[in-house]
């Protein structure tokens, strides 16, 4: 566990960056620091590995006062990942990842072998190992940054906007893989972002900071969205927090209607006969949805995979209400496809009943302060982090 005990930081120019921060980041969990630009997230993070020294207060890691620990030794137990990865440009990928093992005195073969395993673990192909960072995409560089931070198997990871510099699609896949990795690794993580969506997706707990280094609220994502502590937090989590909260509301219990289906390869007249409004859902032999067929406009003889409309997402009944709503809204027929955990069709749901549930959920949040503005920040302030490099 990482504990902040009345921690403050005043920079020499008088800026109070962090004001009396009290917070506990539990072991094996992801604690996210989120808030607008300049509210003290990075300063708080860097006080953990003593890249910034607190002006007052204490930070303890598993009961050990970091102020009383030699900084170099302290950092050996703390992985650090920053925006743009901060890789060493003149070292190959594998040598970047092996940096800390080399420093720890591992021989070259063992360090490189370990680095190769880590590259695979973060989803990077072995053939990239001999490249230099500039020869990788932004997303690949971030993966290398994560692999390098994991190299000494530190119990604690500090991550400062690690996925901000990549496009939204890459960012989403990095987030998914990060969650999968954390499932296996159980690190104690503090993760800084200015993006509330990223915060509620990744955080087991989320600390919302406001300007002046004040902690506005520290809560689990669902609580934060449903019960923002005040106007500032309500504004920061955004007007659509009711929609976001649906991510935490199970889809179970929503009425699923039976949906007529046909299998791939059957004569088109069977598809026309089955189609209620012209559209029919096509499934494979194991009842897994393959796509929609507009049977009216089709002049083929048999139902073929080439003519399916695959727009629309498939929701899993064990998933959230948000995925069901997404499925209904994205379906070309207006009927969202719902499958069981094995991917077999259960039926469809129209947006109406889902929206009725959305209203219910929003009704529960209606007593909270109105959301006036969406929060967020520029995410600026990373240049200094880049200069600091790996921080190991
Ligand atoms: N070395 C420094 N000297 C003086 N003031 C600083 C220094 N570093 C940061 N600050 C100030 O401290 C405050 C908090 O900065 P910090 O970088 O911790 O915020 P942040 O929430 O991480 O912001 P961002 O999202 O923009 O990265 C800001 O007002 C910033 O200008």
TrEMBL record:
Q: What is its EC number?
A: 7.6.2.9
What name does this protein carry? ABC-type quaternary amine transporter
| PANTHER family the record matches | OSMOPROTECTANT IMPORT ATP-BINDING PROTEIN OSMV (PTHR43117:SF4)
What are the start and end residues of every segment in region (Disordered)? 359-392
Q: Which UniProt keywords apply?
A: ATP-binding, Nucleotide-binding, Transport
* InterPro entries on file: AAA+_ATPase (IPR003593), ABC_transporter-like_ATP-bd (IPR003439), ABC_transporter-like_CS (IPR017871), P-loop_NTPase (IPR027417)
**Domain ABC transporter span(s) in chain numbering:** 2-237
UniProt GO MF annotations: ABC-type quaternary ammonium compound transporting activity; ATP binding; ATP hydrolysis activity
Which class of enzymes does this protein belong to? Answer: translocase
Query: Would I find Nucleotide-binding among this entry's keywords?
Result: yes
Pfam families given in the database record: ABC_tran (PF00005)
Q: Report the sequence similarity comment from the record.
A: Belongs to the ABC transporter superfamily.
Spans through the membrane: none
């Amino acid at each position: 566990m990482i504990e902040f005990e009345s921690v403050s930081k005043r920079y020499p120019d008088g800026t109070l960056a962090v004001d009396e921060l009290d917070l506990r980041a539990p072991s094996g969990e992801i604690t996210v620091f989120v808030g607008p630009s300049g509210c003290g997230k990075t300063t708080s993070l860097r006080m953990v590995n003593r890249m910034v020294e607190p002006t007052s207060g204490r930070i303890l890691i598993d009961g050990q006062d970091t102020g009383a620990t030699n900084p170099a030794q302290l950092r050996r137990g703390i992985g650090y990942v920053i925006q743009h990865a901060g890789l060493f440009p003149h070292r190959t990928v594998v040598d970047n990842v092996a940096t800390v093992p080399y420093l720890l005195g591992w021989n070259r073969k063992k360090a490189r072998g370990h680095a190769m395993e880590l590259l695979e673990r973060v989803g990077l192909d072995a053939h990239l190992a001999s490249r230099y960072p500039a020869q990788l995409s932004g997303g690949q560089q971030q993966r290398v940054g994560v692999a390098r931070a994991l190299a000494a198997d530190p119990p604690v990871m500090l991550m400062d906007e690690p996925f901000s510099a990549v496009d939204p699609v890459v960012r989403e896949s990095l987030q998914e893989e990060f969650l999968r990795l954390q499932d296996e690794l159980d690190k104690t993580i503090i993760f800084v972002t200015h993006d509330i969506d990223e915060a509620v997706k990744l955080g087991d707990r989320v600390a919302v900071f406001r300007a002046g280094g004040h902690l506005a609220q520290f809560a689990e994502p669902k609580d934060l969205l449903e019960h923002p502590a005040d106007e500032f937090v309500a504004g920061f989590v955004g007007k659509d927090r009711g929609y976001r909260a649906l991510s935490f509301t199970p889809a179970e219990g929503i009425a699923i209607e039976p949906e007529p289906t046909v299998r791939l390869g059957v004569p088109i007249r069977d598809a026309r006969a089955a189609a209620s409004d012209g559209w029919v859902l096509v499934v494979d032999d194991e009842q897994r949805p393959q796509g929609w067929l507009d049977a009216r406009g089709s002049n083929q003889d048999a139902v073929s995979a080439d003519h399916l409309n695959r727009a629309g997402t498939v929701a899993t009944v064990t998933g959230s209400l948000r995925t069901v709503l997404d499925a209904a809204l994205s379906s070309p027929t207006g009927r969202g496809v719902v499958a069981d955990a094995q991917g077999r069709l259960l039926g469809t749901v129209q947006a109406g009943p889902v929206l009725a549930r959305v209203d219910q959920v929003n009704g529960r949040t209606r007593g909270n302060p109105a959301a006036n503005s969406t929060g967020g920040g520029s995410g600026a302030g990373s240049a200094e982090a880049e200069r600091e490099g790996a921080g190991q």
